[in-house]
Amino acid sequence: MAGFTKASVRDAPAAARRVLVRVDFNVPLDAEEIADDTRIRAALPTIELLRDRGEALVLVSHLGRPHGVDPELSMAPVAARLGELLDAEVGLAPGVVGEQVRTLADGLDDGDVLVLENSRFESGETTNDPEIADELAALAELYVNDAFGAAHRAHATTEGVAHRLPAYAGLLLEREVGELTRVRDDPDHPLVVILGGAKVSDKIGVIERFLETADEILIGGAMCFSFFRAEGIAVGDSLVEDEGVALARRILDRARETGRRIRLPVDVVIADAFAADAQVGEVDAIDIPDGWMGLDIGPATAAAYSTAVARAGTVFWNGPMGAFEMQPFAAGTRAVADAVAQAPGHTVVGGGDSAAAMAAFGLAERVDWLSTGGGASLELLQGRPLPGVEALLDAGQVRS
User: Fold this and answer.
1) What CATH number did the domain enclosing 105 receive?
2) For labeling, which of 8, 148, 163, 224 is most exposed (least CB within 10 Å)?
3) Global pTM?
4) Is residue 203 flagged as an active site residue?
5) pLDDT confidence of 136, banded at 50, 70, 90?
């Protein structure tokens, strides 16, 4: 992909061998059932490419944030679902490393797939323990990182092992980096950036970066109330991040200095409680009364934002416009999602909540790219190096 500077799995030497693949199977679980298999499906192109070449695969991923071994966060349902998607038997190792795991890996035939247990069952995963990285490297002759969502972490499975084997980017990681780098460095203009969610502090680096390149930045979600307070606008009982007010003031001052356009909601859907059965109303964005809280952008704002999206050459959206999980407060996010789906320009949606909204509205297939990486996306857009990407071979580099 244009702009991607690392070695791709498509260029890796083709030979029958074992390949260790870092995937992002950190899927949501409902009891022991997978609630959304999007991340498993996203890894299938790389898995199928390698299997078609006759290579045996050892897959490793984290799942949740266990403190030691936690049976409720076992990879067992993931392995079962992957087997269904591949229509093939998929093995599950009893651990991440150790003699039993090594024996299972040694016994793999061409095209076989083995899933290791949750990588975070090993405390050395998140500390990038060199012994864990050594043991993982002993399971294969080649390493592929296809876990963009974890690429901003310098862990044993993302960074450590990549220095011990010839290391390549999977198809998903390659596309993720290429798409987001294009938005950051080489967008078609006008570039319209839509940012929502709760905290300005989570997005401050991205906002400041886009102040250099975006033609318009559209603000929604609870973070807009930090901007309102920074402007002296009453927000009632709306959620306001204390740290975010000073950051919002800094952003607005910078925008005025540079002539960049940051747009805030002109109307807001308010409620007397954070509940689906709350009393609901609409007000101008100025002076939300006490006892009421803003929970969505209003219809005038939704229409204005949709118009901006419709004339964009590139659209990047991260973060919902309101509490879209509750029906009275879903209209703003739905309007933006519809606008992005219909936009004639290049469209990229990043972040778990935004992706969930596109999926919930049946629009996931109507954008050019739906990113699987939340934190990694934001880090890359800010221009920060991702350890899991930096550790890979450079394009054209050969290492045996």
Assistant:
1) 3.40.50.1260
2) 163
3) 0.91
4) no
5) very high
